[in-house]
Amino acid sequence: MNTERAILSIAMLAAFSDGAKDESEREHVKHFAEQLGSSSVELMGIYQDVLFKRISLNEAAAALTDEGHRRYAYELAVCVCDSDGVRCDAENQFLRELCKLLDLESDKISAVSEQQADAIALAGTAAPMRTPEEKPVAASTATQPVVDEAAQNKMILNYSIVNGALELLPQSWASVAIIPLQIKMVYRIGKAYGHELDQGHIREFLATVGVGLTSQYLEQFGRKLVGGLLGGLLGKTGKKMGGAATGMVMSFATTYALGQVASRYYASGRQMSTDLLKQTFTELVEPAKNLQAQYLPQIQEKARSLDANSIMSMVRGTGSPI
Fold it and tell me: What is the mean pLDDT of the chain?
């Protein structure tokens, strides 16, 4: 069994580990198959092998002899298990077994721990709470709020810097924390303009402008997979496609463009059409990439100051404001 087939087999086994048929998990596996250059026919063969138990987790894990490939196989499995929300007991058990088979149990695994990932997932899906520095909007002024645009732009920039910095961390914080932070940012922007937003609306808004939660999650893991696995197989080309630098630029730019679009949308009383939202977001991404270079020192400095506790506090909105 070659490396690519072994990794995709592990991903497919992860999708089946909870005993449920979840489309988002299958979509993750399909995306990574495309990243590895596997055809739909090859993926269907792997699907059938797993479905009819012609391959075991032990066999797939044994086929990975390179430490980097084993680590990426584990992170990919985590991505698949997390794609439909908080992991269930069966998925946690699967990941523990995989960790042992890949001989990573006693090592420092680069993926975020299951407790940390679950806590962030819960924080990101619960209704956003007012952060300490925010003040409730008075009923008499809710229809015509006065927004400090300079302060709001600074807030959007700060979220962008943090999300760019997350990509530079050795752990997989970017994969689990960026989306919840973007949700919190949109919530704060909407609230500033007098809109009390729930999770359903915010997720809809992100998907409308083109920042789909599933697709962005896939891209974050995909960059790491391409930069690592394909970087080793394809040399400099593969490494250029993925890696922390690319992730940093994209996460900063996506967050910044999202914040600016949200500001315009809620300032207009949510009057922008779907097409205009998408167009505006697309037009803002490229300038945001250029802006990222200007703030590279701040992103690098922020990365040095981030740890598990500070990231959790930001996601929950209970720590120091950013």
Answer: 74
